[in-house]
Amino acid sequence: MPLGEEKNGASDRSIYVNNPHLDSMTDDILYHFNLGTSTHDLPAMFGDVKFVCVGGSPWRMKSFIEYIARELGLSEPNAEYPNICAGTDRYAMYKIGPVLSVSHGMGIPSISIMLHELIKLLYHSRCTDVTVVRIGTSGGIGLKPGTVVVTKQSVDSVFQPRLEQIILGKPVVRSTELDGELAEELLQCGKDLAEFETVIGNTMCTLDFYEGQARLDGAFCSYSEEDKQSYLAQAYAAGVRNIEMESSVFAAMCKLSNLRAAVVCVALLDRLKGDQLTSSHDVLNNYQQRPQVLVGHYIKKKLNASKKR
Amino acid sequence: MPLGEEKNGASDRSIYVNNPHLDSMTDDILYHFNLGTSTHDLPAMFGDVKFVCVGGSPWRMKSFIEYIARELGLSEPNAEYPNICAGTDRYAMYKIGPVLSVSHGMGIPSISIMLHELIKLLYHSRCTDVTVVRIGTSGGIGLKPGTVVVTKQSVDSVFQPRLEQIILGKPVVRSTELDGELAEELLQCGKDLAEFETVIGNTMCTLDFYEGQARLDGAFCSYSEEDKQSYLAQAYAAGVRNIEMESSVFAAMCKLSNLRAAVVCVALLDRLKGDQLTSSHDVLNNYQQRPQVLVGHYIKKKLNASKKR
């Protein structure tokens, strides 16, 4: 199937599921969320969601909801944010006002399960006009550690903006195009804040952390430091500024379901200078908060603008 | 690179890392475990490990260590099993006597990060003669729900026993061969127990849970019920009895590092009859304990045999 053939020609901002079978199901169990259409009133629980932030670590997604609650003036003293997916340890989910925060684990398959169920959740909840942002960590290429990268294009291991999805044993190629306007708005938020460096660039999405990212410190390594540097230099020349493990399927699935989507990741290290994460726990922790701060600023700006209208 | 070219010709049971760069590192940080060679005395902590059980869910891997402690007579009243990876939420790790229990999240990339760091941990700890078993959940094909499948071969979406690993942008094909003798021993343990059905068969390993496994209930579905049934029938004809998302890279990486490895998964449902997990929480919970019980029996048998020697 050629790139983009599955694209929706939608002009409104409804959430699409592209699955004729769903309408004939009397009940839909979102197994990995421990939620379902017959056990939960999804429109009442989630109908007001306008922003979904997703990230690998459950702890980080809990800290994000606490942060955004404070930023939006929605936090109350001693407020607890219960995990909506409490009956499972596959993912964690938190909500405050129009903001949903969901963890997705590590890697394309893990985030893909979460996104299938999130897209169905938003669809069943009859949400409209939803923006989804992945806030994550990554390895930078030629960047100062702590720099935040807003993804222009998510590219594969040969620097192409595509994802190969296997369906019934056959490859289907999907576009990993993200929302250009949203990326520019997020870049502007980084400039407004002026608390840390924010850049826009391509993000390479890989299937593993060690050999797939040309690291020299895995259990296996069949290449030299020179091979590594040459590969990373090719990536840099193709506009790649950071490497992570979820953006391609995130971009492809959001595009197929008409979700406005962006990827904002902090670079924890410069891969041209090393492979191991040697910075202190406190420094890494501070870096990991930067995408949260940037996206928090964006959400506040959007909500204030819509109040004024 | 042809299949098997990376294979070790080892006759002893040392753990191999295949990475000449590791020896020149003064310190090795196992980032996703929050452990390291300069911060932890790994040989003292892990040198006695002979069995490693891995599974997706952190809760399940905690319940496994509690179970195996009781089975081996190593549990003490009110004993707590602290999470060895306490400073991170990426993976959870527990230990009792010679048994290590580690969670790996969902999907090939997530388990691959864990295995790189586990193999290095066993290597730095100078462990020998280690057996690693993945205990997991899966979808069955033509099996009664609750049946336990010991994997003969882990196969890809076109039913071949191989894994394509991308290194520096180029595909390298690796064998997913498992230890045949160990699989037979585990099958025998299932027969000894006679508490549930245990079979041996091929396991298909996919990159996603919905489209990659021919489910009709994802956010996207471009095929019919007939297409699905035809694909699953082809899989069955190729010896596939269950489908999960980690076995191929698990098999490939264990083989490369000289670890005796097996995959034991319970089938939570029969995919020929449906896609959704409609069984009650209690029933599914009971099913998930079966691989634990089987592998617990195997470990006890092996430890008793070595005591007698």
TrEMBL record, chains A, B:
Pathway: Pyrimidine metabolism; UMP biosynthesis via salvage pathway; uracil from uridine (phosphorylase route): step 1/1. This is Uridine phosphorylase. PROSITE patterns: PNP_UDP_1 (PS01232). The keyword Cell membrane does not apply. Keywords: Glycosyltransferase, Transferase. It is an enzyme of class 2 (transferase). It comes from the Eukaryota. Substrate binds at Q213, R215. One of its GO terms (cellular component) is cytosol. It comes from Onychostoma macrolepis. Pfam families: PNP_UDP_1.
